[in-house]
What we know:
Elements: E1 2-3, E2 6-8, E3 13-15, E4 18-20, E5 27-29, E6 34-37, E7 40-42, E8 46-48, E9 54-57, E10 79-86, E11 92-94, E12 99-109, E13 111-113, E14 118-120, E15 129-130, E16 140-141, E17 144-150, E18 158-162, E19 165-166, H1 171-175, E20 219-223, E21 228-231, E22 245-249, H2 258-261, E23 269-277, H3 306-309, H4 312-317, E24 321-326, E25 334-339
Parallel strand pairs: 2-5, 3-6, 4-7, 5-8, 6-9, 9-10, 10-12, 11-13, 12-14, 12-15, 13-16, 14-17
Antiparallel strand pairs: 1-2, 17-23, 18-22, 19-23, 20-21, 20-22, 24-25
Amino acid sequence: NKTAGIASLLNNVTINGLLNLSSNTSRLAIVNNTLTLNGTTTGSGFLRGSLTSNLSIGGTGSLIGTLNFDQTSDGTTNALSNLTINRTSTGTLSLGNKLVLINVLTPTAGVLTTAGFLHLRSNATNTARIAPGSILGGYINGNATAERYLSASANRAYRLLTSIVTTTGTIKDNWQEGVNNTVVNTNVNSPLAGYGTHITGTGGSANGFDVTQNNQASLYSFDQPTQNWAAVTNTNVNTLNTQTGYLFFIRGNRDDIATINTTTGSSNVTLRATGTLAQGTQNFSSLANSTLFSLVTNPYASPISWSSVYTGANATNFENTINIWDPNVNTRGGYITIRS
Length: 340
């Protein structure tokens, strides 16, 4: 079905040969269908996605050129619900511009080259995730921007968080959206409404924090030798990685300075970071012995099953319980115990 330069799929479609998006005015709209590409692509046109569109890359060998998505409506026309890559014989899929993933990326076979254009969306109802890949540690090349939506909490609780990616940019670049308040009672908003949060600490704005009257710390890392929480000292310098967890006092998003000037209330906030995704086996070194605690993160852009992890050597070397943090317990959150 074609209207004004946009051809729309009426059903699920599989293309085994060449897909030619001939000019930069060409659009192929997937709508709420699944488009399967088993051949090659060419041309300067665009795929138009949606929140219910699915794309599957099959066949053998590299997909010639790159896939470009319609950027008319960010988060909609450049979005896919699900993306499956099942391209054998070292096949690759390369992104030419921004792709927003709503649900699941399944890297069955082949490699996705992101060129920094992959965005994993998180909102009140869902967080995009990466399913297990078949190529050990090598099914995604390039950076991704991964989001984590946190709902408002009336008690302004602490959260235990880690970054979904390993960054070269600083904590300020990512979780503060590159800005910070330098004057008490004067707010510097995020470039994108609802994104980024205020982070406070000793030294105030000189150390990248959002300045307050007392500059009380809101971000802590776990110091294993002393078994204590240590305040992060500088968001201008510290980067993020998938194996460092934080105890983070979340006040809400950066849109309203009232969240750091009051003791109650919060707002919804989305934190995001840009960097490389953890893939394949992840090793955590220097864990504490049986009399001490270690803070172990989930390094993947996906939930993990503790019952699946607690097998083999893990079942021999570790107890069958873990302590996780629940922000809804007590006034500011608390630990609950999970048994395998």
